[in-house]
Amino acid sequence: MLGSTNVNSNRNRDAFVLKATAASDEVSRILKENPNGHVHSVFTTSFNLAFGGHLVHVGALGNGIAPFGIGLDQADAHLLTTLLAVDLEAVWDEESMSVLFPKGISLSLHEAKWTNHTIQPSTYDLTSLEDNFMYLADRLLQDDWHTGLAETTDEKKQIVHYIVDPSSFIEGIPVLDKLNDLKNLVLHHELDEKEVFDYWIGRGLGLTPSGDDVITGICAVLSALEGTDQTFLRKLKPYLIEYGQKRTTFVALEYLLYATENKFHSHLQQLCYVLDKQRGKEFLKAVEEMKEIGHTSGADTVLGMLLGMKAAVIHKKER
């Protein structure tokens, strides 16, 4: 490992301490069970730590908190990324409630607000849900929403129009065929789930490929809306355990595994909570926060939410 200095030898030195503002309660469990870890990956304003095969994401609080995340002030998050490097040792010190790094650097969770990322199913107002479904579909059609599923504006329109109205299906467009299979799997039709998941899991570029984001959006809706069939989630988890590491990135797989346990990024949680509420400031803020996740991740996740809403709830009403 880089940074071979034993972090424990630095405890008595003048420490450079940064304080976390918030952290997922899953992080507490991970650190207690696996106190010895390392820096997994570093980006501009965030980084991932690995403890016992589990990731802990550390980033700016304004970007939301992952279900396995720690949130800091944006300036502190950026500063930490400049001080750390991949494979650097990281140790959880229970006494000080801190993650210790070499050279006296530490991240304190002593004053952090602990957050719960489990979405609990609740009853919903169908009229408001349908209204917001159409609003989200219209927002996705706007130029400033970018999805990794489409290469052109026309293709994006075809995808959104198909989800809103499956009768608009156009033969010869492969992604629509695959979306139809995914929708039918949500509807619990008899399909080869491995074949469907093989297409979507890991499809696209980035730390969380577009296909994974779509699946996450579906899982969020099924978790949030009471009475939806949970078969999709029950089929997804064993697939991920057996094939996930071969199909997608470490980061994306972590998000998906949490999704099968009804645990999600804070921005996605917030949008799920207002899906069936009248559109006010809270709803509009949640939509804008989703849009800011990655280059295409927000839009791809919302596409998955729309597909889940259509298949699991609105389709039943239309039959």
Account of the protein in words:
By secondary structure, this protein is of the alpha/beta class. It folds into 2 domains: 109 residues, no CATH class; 193 residues, no CATH class. Helix content is 47%, strand content 14%. It is built from 12 helices and 10 strands. Strands 1-9-8-7-3-4-5-6-2-10 form a 10-stranded mixed sheet, covered by helices on one side.
What's this entry about, in short?
The chain contains twelve helices and ten strands. With 319 residues, it is α/β, with parallel strands linked by helices.
Radius of gyration: 21 Å
* Side-by-side strand order of the widest sheet: 1-9-8-7-3-4-5-6-2-10
User: What sequence of helices (H) and strands (E) makes up the elements?
Assistant: EEHEEEEHEEEEHHHHHHHHHH
Number of helices: 12
What percent of the residues sit in helical stretches (DSSP H or I)?
40-55%
What number is the mean pLDDT? 92
Low-confidence stretches: 1-6, 9-13
**Biggest pleated-sheet summary:** 10 strands, mixed
| Class by alpha and beta content | alpha/beta
Strand content: 5-15%
Anisotropy-based shape: globular
Count of β-strands: 10
Number of domains: 2
End-to-end CA span: 59 Å
Main features:
single chain, 319 residues, alpha/beta, 2 domains, 10 strands, globular
